[in-house]
């Protein structure tokens, strides 16, 4: 039985989650094939990682078929919000404003994006 989902996914776990979020539930082989398009990774490595993610509660597993089908437990939005909350708390001392300021200083922001940010702050 899977445990409760842990806090922050690792970079490798996020790669796997992105594939599942974009493509829907996937077998290990399907995830491996997609990962191999951008990096050299062994099937056994992907299998081990996805089994570990299942044990951590990040993935659920349908064992109905010969190949287990894995599905993300949390949505992309839920995961992103959790990561941002953690970043704000642990890196920016609880200040969302400081996070936004650092992001604006670091990235080139289009006028449209700035307008959207202004509207968010106004709300």
* Shape, principal axes of CA atoms: elongated
Could you tell me the radius of gyration in angstroms? 18 Å
- Gap from first CA to last CA: 43 Å
The major β-sheet equals:
3 strands, antiparallel
Q: Helical region count?
A: 6
Percent of residues in β-strands: 5-15%
Alpha-beta classification: mainly alpha
Spatial arrangement of strands, main beta sheet: 1-3-2
Order of helices and strands: HEHHEEHHH
In total, the number of strands is 3
Average predicted local confidence, pLDDT = 90
Helical content, roughly?
A: 55-70%
Low-confidence stretches: none
Short summary:
The protein is mainly α and 123 residues long. The chain has helices at 11-23, 28-35, 43-56, 76-91, 96-106, 111-122, and strands at 26-27, 59-62, 69-72.
3D structure, described in words:
There is one protein chain. With 123 residues, this protein is mainly α. It is 60% helix and 8% strand. The chain has helices spanning 11-23, 28-35, 43-56, 76-91, 96-106, 111-122; strands spanning 26-27, 59-62, 69-72. Strands 1-3-2 form a 3-stranded antiparallel β-sheet. α2 (28-35) packs across α3. It is elongated, with a radius of gyration of 18 Å.
């Amino acid at each position: 039985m899977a445990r409760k989902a842990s806090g922050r996914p690792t970079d490798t776990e996020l790669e796997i989650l992105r594939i599942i979020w974009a493509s829907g539930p996937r077998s290990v082989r399907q995830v491996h094939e997609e990962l191999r398009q951008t990096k050299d990774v062994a099937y056994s490595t992907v299998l081990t990682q996805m089994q570990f993610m299942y044990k951590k509660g990040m993935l659920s597993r349908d064992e109905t078929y010969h190949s287990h089908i894995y599905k993300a437990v949390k949505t992309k939005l839920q995961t992103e919000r959790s990561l941002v909350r953690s970043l704000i708390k642990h890196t920016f001392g609880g200040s969302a404003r400081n996070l936004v300021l650092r992001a604006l200083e670091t990235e080139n922001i289009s006028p449209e994006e700035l307008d959207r940010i202004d509207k968010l702050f106004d709300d």
